[in-house]
Design goal:
The two termini are 21 Å apart. This protein has 70 residues and is an all-alpha fold.
C-alpha cells in the first residue's frame, strides 16, 4: 500500500487493496478468537473457579472490542 501511495496509484485501486488487507486481517482475528475459545477458554471452564470467570470476561471484552471496530 505504501508503494502504491508513493507511486501515486489510482485511489480506487489503493482503497481496494486496503479492503482486501482488512478482510484478511479480520479472518486472522476470527481464527484467533476461535482457537483461544477452543483451547484457553475451554480449559479454564473445565477447571472452573476464578480463572474460568476471568477467561470468559476477557473473551467477551475482546469480542466487544472487535465488534466496535467494524
Amino acid at each position: 500500500v505504501r508503494g502504491m501511495v508513493e507511486s501515486e496509484a489510482y485511489c480506487i485501486d489503493i482503497l481496494t487493496q486496503i479492503a482486501a488487507i482488512t478482510s484478511a486481517l479480520d479472518g486472522v482475528a476470527l481464527k484467533l478468537v476461535e482457537d483461544h475459545t477452543s483451547h484457553c477458554v475451554r480449559d479454564a471452564l473445565t477447571q472452573g473457579g476464578s480463572e474460568a470467570d476471568r477467561k470468559v470476561e476477557e473473551l467477551l471484552a475482546t469480542v466487544q472490542r472487535f465488534a466496535r471496530t467494524r
